[in-house]
Amino acid sequence: MAMPPADRAARKPGRAVRLMRAARSFLHPGVLLHPFRMIHYWGYSHVLPRAEMTLGQSCRIAPNASFRNGARISLGDGVQVGEFVSLWAGRSSGRIIVGARTTFGPGAFVTAADYGLAAGQELTDQPMAERDITIGEGCWIGAKAVITAGVTLGDGVVVGAGAVVTRDVPAGAIVGGVPARILRQRV
Fold first, then answer.
1. Is the predicted pLDDT of residue 41 greater than 80, yes or no?
2. Which residues, other chains included, contact 91 with Cβ-Cβ below 8 Å and sequence gap of 6+?
3. What is the CATH number for 141?
């Protein structure tokens, strides 16, 4: 059943009301300040750490990749870092070393530091355990995969999408799952 034109007009706000709502939205202080917050975030999560990183030749890095403690991140020649990838080295010692021609799928997360898990104390109040991560040459890290502190991946490893790697992986292995396990060898 169609609504009579008079009822439709009563429900739809007039042009002046819609313009006022739009102006209030566009001119809200939070909206006006948000671009500055985004620039600040991009500066501390991408631009500044990237300037400290050791980059090989022909590295390709998505503009929305996130880095922490760039001085402890080293990428080999031809490494590709996809959209929304996070490479977070430790605050004081945990390094991330990536071999040549390794590719990170969208949303992959690599962290060289873990919080302590002792009972009776807040997690964020405990000292962080930092351990180096080494990723070999020619690896493929799938979308949304997670690589935790202290892991070493051999050359040519494939990490399946969404896998959580908590242990070392030998060269040529294909791993997947949570926690990641070896599914088969590439060779």
1. no
2. 69, 113, 128, 130
3. 2.160.10.10
